[in-house]
Amino acid sequence: MKIYTQRLESVESDQQFKTLELTFDTRQKSRFRATLNDGTDIGADLPRTGILRGGSFIATQDGEVLRIDAKSEKLMQIRAKTDFELLKAAYHLGNRHVPLMLTPFALYFEPDHVLAEMVRGLGLEVYEVEHPFEPESGAYAQHSHERLKSHDHRLSPIKSLHHVN
Q: What's the pLDDT score for residue 37?
């Protein structure tokens, strides 16, 4: 089993690497096991320096590089008729310290039907969707907004799986 022990800030443009999609829950951990698409079992024993964001790179002692991508997972999506309504939902969810992904058109959080009912009570629509989860890291965390800008596909509206009642 290959063990990845290093976080990389960047890689050379000609660097060869494999990719691995992981959920947000796994990307928060410094130690985990996973299986690559080709069936190779890998392990990670990384320094505890933060969350692996989609597009992060990790490496083995021998220099083998792996790009980590954010895997689509079940999320709750909030849509609103106005920017103010969306802002209001973000305020109320933030007040409850809910990990929240912000986009210009929607908010996303991990499935929680109590929170979904609260948001519906504010007059907003809540849907269950499949989408990569990249929540805000907080005002004091070091987080590259440039990396998020490079993933514009996450900022566009997506089709929901079904409306949650």
A: 87
Q: pLDDT digit string (tens) for 61-119?
A: 999 999 999 999 999 999 999 999 999 999 999 999 999 999 999 999 999 999 999 99
Structure tokens at 108: 């996303």
Look at residue 139 in the predicted model and tell me its pLDDT.
Answer: 57
Classified as helix, coil or strand, 42 is strand
Residue 138 amino acid letter: G
Q: What is the pTM of this model?
A: 0.78
Biggest CA-to-CA distance, the chain:
54
| Pair of tokens at residue 26 | 């796994």
Tell which residue, 82, 87, 89, 153, has the closest CA to residue 126.
89
Q: Which of 28, 55, 54 minimizes the C-alpha distance to 44?
A: 28
Give dist(CA 109, CA 20) in Å, integer. 22
Domains and CATH numbers, the chain: 2-70 (2.60.260.20), 72-132 (3.30.70.790)
Q: Parallel, antiparallel, or unpaired: how do β-strands 65-70 and 101-102 relate?
A: unpaired
- Is residue 70 within 8 A of residue 133, CB to CB? The reply is yes
